[in-house]
Amino acid sequence: MTDIRSYEQTGEAGFGDYVALLKPRVMSLVVFTAMVGLLVAPVSVHPMVAFASVLFIALGGGASGALNMWWDADIDRVMKRTKGRPVPAGLVSPQEALGLGCALTGIAVVMLALASNFLAAGLLAFTIFFYAVIYTIWLKRSTPQNIVIGGAAGAFPPMIGWAVATGGIGIESVLMFLLIFMWTPPHFWALALFMNDDYTRAGVPMLTVTHGRRVTRNHILGYTLALVPVAIGAGFTSIGGPVYLATAIVLNTMFVLGAWRIWRRDEDMAGADGYSVEKKFFRLSLAYLFLHFAAFLAEAVLRPYGWGGW
């Protein structure tokens, strides 16, 4: 396969194309979970420091996205889901994507260190390195466990937000990390089940490609069951409370039932009827993570009024 990183820019990029390089959907998740990690911490942060810190964490997430698009342009070009991205579409050159990613990395890490503390900045630097190098360049193309190990990169933002506020790492921030880390495999494997042809064409060794659909379904159920005690357990820490715990019980019941339906899915089911099971679970997984962190935030907001927390 020709390496698209040697291709030339063939179109004229607009501002929106450079924004697309930063993966704004992923960035929105980074911003939200980092903000929650910061706001639920037991130490108050000046609003300007909080705003600046979340902004620089977002820029770090955008840097990771640009570096990912630079390196993955060759496989993005052959996948239906990603072929319209700025680099494979010829709107932004690979060199521009690399330059933007490196520049934003430097700005984000240095400015976060100045705005908050060196631990938060160090965690941000490690997150970018982990996503761009460990996951994108190494794991993604070499092992079917790519999304399991690589999922750590997406799990660091709430830990970074917590470090901004406290200057340290606590059991609460570790549990927020683990919540995202354990959620990532079933979330992405559900996507891989109904996008398997894309990964096969691109030669990405997703579990669905290397071990088949049945093994992937087994793994989804296994990781979902392992996720439940992490999600429920967080409800009994200082960032939990009755609102969070009730939310977590409902969501995890639905998530386990969804994983069970995927596990029981008849492999002979074809087309839209068959894939609807995975698509419903994938959509549920998006709501699952958002609502857990929204519940953490609700506990923090209600606690001063005596309505949240234990």
UniProtKB/TrEMBL annotation:
Its main location: membrane. It is a multi-pass membrane protein. The keyword Ligase does not apply. Pathway: Porphyrin-containing compound metabolism; heme O biosynthesis; heme O from protoheme: step 1/1. The chain crosses the membrane at residues 26-45, 51-71, 91-112, 118-139, 146-169, 175-194, 220-237, 243-263, 284-302. It is found in: Cell membrane. Belongs to the UbiA prenyltransferase family. Protoheme IX farnesyltransferase subfamily. NCBIfam families: cyoE_ctaB, PRK04375.1-2. Converts heme B (protoheme IX) to heme O by substitution of the vinyl group on carbon 2 of heme B porphyrin ring with a hydroxyethyl farnesyl side group. Interacts with CtaA. HAMAP family: CyoE_CtaB. Carbon 2 of the heme B porphyrin ring is defined according to the Fischer nomenclature. This is Protoheme IX farnesyltransferase. It comes from Halodurantibacterium flavum.
